[in-house]
User: Fold this.
Amino acid sequence: MKKILVTGGLGFIGSHTVVELQAEGYEVVVIDNLNNSRKEVKISIEEISGKTFELKVADVTNSIALNELFEEHKFEGVIHFAAHKAVGESVENPVSYYQNNLSGLVSLLGAMEKQGVSNLIFSSSCTVYGATTDLPVTEKTVIQKAESPYGTTKILGEEIINDYAKHKDFKSILLRYFNPVGAHPSAKIGELPLGVPNNLVPYITQTAAGIRKQLTVFGDDYNTIDGTCIRDYIHVVDLAKAHVKALAYCNEMKQPVDVFNVGTGKGNTVLEVIHAFEHSNNIKLAYTVGARRGGDVEQIFADTTKVNELLGWHAHYDIADMMKHAWAWQQNLK
Ligand code: WQD
Assistant:
């Protein structure tokens, strides 16, 4: 059975990807430092898949722990999620973002090189496109200077992998995520924002649950259909399945590195997401319109031709499903 290392495998996207890897017949090993996840997530994943997996509680920047893992297991490939990912937080603490996100990747590449593991799926982001007007964005859309240290770590991460792959027998796929939202239909795993959520959908569900008083819509004076920003929201299970497809594609790939936009190809405004949440769950949401949030781009959504045609992957869930699953998960949270 092919064995895959998933770094950050107890996190939001990581946990859903472990479920899909196990469903596909892979044996999974997870390394996670638990600073943005909980150990109980392992039990929930195993309840869904009916299969257990090994968990190593350690930080990917810890090369000793990482090398021990690579000596213990013969990995077919690695999916690398473990990174800090909050745009706003990265502006406050750029050093911790560069330290964690970049040395984590470098330490991982060092361990892979030492043990001759040559397939890497890297968690990148549509953030690399910045405030582009080239919409929908394709993988050829010009990469702009990042709007945040978080975005810079994704751009530099891609460059580090491209440089490394030039000199090694190595294959890597860079997946540029759009906006991952929702939760597993079982409501056993989902997003676990620690503290006040930065992102729209967990803020919506926490408002509906009475944890937050009301949602503030950050600006309705943009040049869009209803004045609020447009994003390409993708169900986290669809995104997880794209990683399984990417892993299989590594062995067919002609060039050392390839990059894919992973979105639905459809943009929704903030108000459309709110209304979808209300209609899907028959709930009236308390929200108000406030000032724009610094760093927000007006609109971004994906051209998904490449991922559809080369990986044979398509998004299955729509925004109504995403809102239904997000709410079911919020209600399930203790
Ligand atoms: C979406 C829209 C806000 C909160 C995120 C991640 C980034 C990347 C892409 C992975 C914006 C509006 C939000 C609120 C609001 N993911 N909003 N009120 O900024 O697109 O980026 O997804 O790489 O890492 O940060 O997502 O959910 O924060 O915002 O009006 O309380 O919702 O202005 O227009 P964003 P988001």
The longest strand covers residues 119-125. The two ends are 36 Å apart (CA to CA). The mean pLDDT is 96.
